[in-house]
Amino acid sequence: xxxxxxxxxxxxxxxxxxxDAKEVAVETPYGAPTSVLTCGAIEGIDVxxxxxxxxxxxxxxxxxxxxxxxxxLKEQGCTHILAATAVGSLREEIAPGHLVFPNQFIDHTKxxxxxxxxxxxxxxxxxxxxxxxxxxxxxxxTAQELDMTFHRDKTVITIxxxxxxxxxxxxxxxxxxxxxxxxxxxxxxxLAREKKIHYAAVAMSTDYDCWxxxxxxxxxxxxxxTMGQNSDNVxxxxxxxxxxxxxxxxxxxQ
Length: 254
What we know:
By secondary structure, this protein is α/β, with parallel strands linked by helices. It has helices spanning 66-75, 133-145, 167-175, 185-194, 220-245; strands at 3-8, 19-24, 37-42, 45-51, 80-89, 99-101, 104-108, 150-152, 155-159, 180-182, 198-207. The two termini are 16 Å apart. 42% of the residues are buried. Residues 250-254 have low confidence and may be disordered.
């Protein structure tokens, strides 16, 4: 049975989107998730939403309780996760406002709990292909149908934050063949894979980080402005993609 978890926010818990929406507070062995769960349905498909940084965006990246969030979605029966995230572009062709569906990540975090297997038993999880390719296919075909500009099969680098990169770091990340940069995909994708949940990131390019000397260096205000202008597109993409996920139930096997 398909059940889709959405990690993000930006109006995605609007009651007009979810039928019979209700809020559920849960606890996990890792503490409380970063928000209550908003549970409902889209065209008969059960959906559970978590606001990664809290409903009021008050939780900075390293303090996000990633383990509690993923645990809560698994306990609610989620089989798939669509995770919204803002990213800075490290490539000229990925302009602000474009969508990106990465298939690889580089972990440049330093302080985060990145596994459920830190006691009693050691489990080595394959991370060669961390994102669900079938979900990337669904998102790509949906974005194409909706006439949205997108880039697929790119590499996202996750930094610790909350500060942004220096120019030297930004150029270094470009040299590492990273395409976009954010502060949230790792360890979220790793934990989802440990729990055998199909995971894909829906990344919105909001800026050119600071490597692009003809553009202003990224600011939080810049990110909020671009996200606000494009949040309706992300919501449309989610709704239409979720309707397609059911069709992939038999082939979405990791």
